[in-house]
Here is the input.
Amino acid sequence: MNGNQFPADGQGKNQMWKTSDKVTHHTLEKKLNRWGWIFVSLSAVLISVFVFIPMVGALIMSFQTGKGVNAHFGGLTNYIRLFTDQTVGKALGNTFIYLIIQVPIMIVLALIISVLLNDDKLKGRTFFRIAIFLPCITSLVSYSLIMKNIFSNDGIFNQMLAHIGLSPILWTTDPFWAKVLIIISITWRWTGYNMVFYLSGMQGIEPSIYEAAEIDGANAVKKFTHMTIPLLKPIILFTTITSTIGTLQLFDEVQNITQGGPANGTVTISQYIYNLCFKYTPNFGYACAVAFIVVILIVILSMIQMKVGGKDNQ
Amino acid sequence: MKRNKTLSVLKYIFLAVLSAVSIFPFFWMIISATNTAAEVNAGKLTFGAHLAENLSSLFHSDLHFGASVGNSMIIALITTVLALLISSVAGYGFEIFRSKARDRVFNILLLSMMIPFCALMIPLYRMFGAAGKAGLTGIGLNTLFSVIMPSICTAFLIFFFRQNAKSFPKDILEAARIDGLNEPRIFIHMYVPVMKSSYAAAAIVTFMSSWNNYLWPLVALQDPQKRTVPLILSAMGSSYTPDYGMIMAGIVIATLPTGILFFMMQKQFVAGMIGSVK
Amino acid sequence: MKGKRIAAVLLSAAMLVSMAACSGGTANTSSAAANSQAAPSSADNTAKKLTIWAWDDTFNVKAANEAKEIYAKSNPDVTVNVVSMAQNDIVAKMNTAFESGNMDGMPNIVLIEDYRIQNYLKSYPGVLSDLSDITKTDKFMDYKLKIMTENNKVYGVPFDSGVACVFYRSDLIKQAGYKDSDMQSLTWDKFIEIGKAVKAKTGKAMINVDPNDLGIIRMMIQSAGKWYVDADGKADIANNAALKEALAIYKKMQTEGITVTSSGWDAGVAAVNDSKAATAVMGCWYASSIKKAADQSGKWAVAPFPKMSNVSGSVNSSNCGGASWYVIDKVPGKDTAKDFLSKTFASNTDLLDSLCKDISLVSTYKDTASGKNVNTPDAFFNNQPIYKDWNDWTKNIPAVNYGTSTYDIESKMTEAVQSIVKGSSIDDTLKNTQTEVEGILSAAG
Here is the structure.
């Protein structure tokens, strides 16, 4: 995390404070420095109060066992239990399945759509763009309920399957299909969102670059992999990181579509933490321990993504 | 030439299918909002005449749906205004007054983006609980304040405004300083007007996430009259006998504000968002 | 350089603040708890505004509203506000409020499911009011009282019986070649045998199962006086013969192909209403869901719960769910709340009898047995006197200790059941689950 990932960051520090007079330079710098702290302090305080302090609180709680009035320091008990708790494994597994399968599908799909729509000659371009973006205006709870209704075992989707003579898919009671349903739902909701970024990024690319490539005999695929993707790299990185964080915190959808079922077949880490606090007999200490594992995982993952994505942007 | 033609047909088919898939749930939602629960369950795919009935049972149920729309609106508007103000000042500060120390603080703040909210929920709950107990009525649990506060300053927005501030021409800044304008005035009079599209994009993102926020209000709000729209929708969906006609009508209403907002400010949204990744 | 130093100061200050705030946080909560333990003034206790939370609009919310009307006649000065909420939301709010000791916005009276109450009584002593003076122990069924009693004090007013039974479609059973008399004193072996015939003759499933809800397994083990935990609250999974047999039966029903699967409460009800299953093995409160299919009136009948023939002590009676009313002690209006309950659910046989008609309530208040509606046959169930039957069966429900963590354990059990249905050995799977459940219980202690 050192700002390298955003190429513009690396250069030109203090470039606006060039003045010939050394004394003025010093007082001006001092003054600006003070203003700098004033500008950023409120947000630093707010984030400390509403994120970092609670985080330290959660860390302390993660060493406590017992609940309510019986809470007491329990050392590493909660962390030890993590290793015997198969639901943690299941929740981590599910979360990674969503991550590894859903995020790439969505990003590739969004890229392909963007390339297709980034064509002035395409008829109905605006219609396609709006249609594909439309899902983003729904709230997570709303669309989850719609999906739950459409894909319930005797919902409209299975009724349509029956119409064309196919047997129904047990979307909500089969652990495999339930995961597929979650992936379909998230992809439906977010592909258009990512598309907006790519599309705008592509509009910023000079057409002359492509024209030159065409003269050199590059075909559409080659243009896509050798030009579009490298040029969009910062945007792709940005969307990948936000999607990753979003997926790791996945809650609303699973909670409202499958409730984590069948038999914890779709449960995510966030939802397991929620269950530990609010659905089961509350065990906040243990829930905090689970949460800390996620914190560590997210930090590691983001660092990997930035290293991979940021390497040749120097 | 022939190959190109097939390709282009394939392209249209692909896009048409995707559009259909994207639109169908909306279509289903709107159709269902006009049908009875029984018709929804039976998979009726045509408009019915029960919209008024669904709306009336929605607003007359014990769940205070009408009040929840008001609550959500107030929370989303206040959150948006405060978040834009605080985060844009910070983003501007981090970019315009760059220094090693502030970069470090910025990086630490960025880390907060990676902490899953559920890890903070319990301590936050206790914090607001303690504030309420300490006699600070109005900022304890179960108040709009408790829902608004944790979301008015997010690292994402600071990051967003910082990235946007990069495109702010530095020579304007220096000229203004030479003219003797102080820093807050430069920010208000020179920066804010130029960055309209950034503000628009940030407003959309913040309004939407506040309007749709589910987990924290679920925990923080106990009074049924103070609940927000997603809480009511979720409660209706998890009831023993969900009335999907009524639920879909509720979802249509819940979707309207974000839909309208988005289509009104689409251009600015895209421009602002792109500014953040340039 | 200077900036660096300031930043360092700022950061360490932030750290210090966080530390202070955290230790302060714990101090605050304990002092908050201490504050709230101080007796509220008597004026607070007799506040004239009551809030009641319950979760089923067609059932307990309706009951609370009828009680409200009755109470209003004798106490017109008290405003009672009945709030309907999803049960999950009520549980979430209780968990957070009790854990933090902050009762802002909590109701005076709350309905709590019997499976959960032990946890609240044990983990948060003092949060719920002692109702020993209004709940007369000789007036209510013992199995119900047992779970809400702690240190010889009764903390709740028992509400509905969850007496388990087999709702069955008489017409489908007859098509399959069996008679109503075959459904009496069932064993699970017989149930499966009939189920196979139903499947063969009518093409319909015998029973609907939900992989997330092991209600049927809970009913089976309670019919043998067992639970996921033993009388001392220790995990009782790996060596629980009743549980093993219940799982074997559950698996057999699936392998014999007599089940239909659905997820979620409403989907289960829909499956029954759409005639996808010939029976529903549930608590008596399920009657209102079955009655939603008005066109099936006269086709349904009710039989006692099947017992497990291979498990000694298993009887033809069990329980599923059921809830009771509790008063939250720290919410202003505690005395008014107790007065409300004592004049309604804790004594009013007229109310309970009319609830029998209006919401098919099977009360656990003993005197309701002689009520008019309780002894009236129900036309939907082919004029069977179902309320009287349920009342009789309720007396035989084996009392068990539900322990503090039913739903945590249930979540682990759903995983175990899934792998057992897929073919894992019952013994090995349960050994594993035993370890996990011990983890839950030791962390909870």
Remarks:
- The domain at 164-319+399-444 of chain C is CATH 3.40.190.10 (D-Maltodextrin-Binding Protein; domain 2).
- Residues 6 and 102 of chain C are 38 Å apart (CA to CA).
- Residues 1-40 of chain C have pLDDT under 50 and may be disordered.
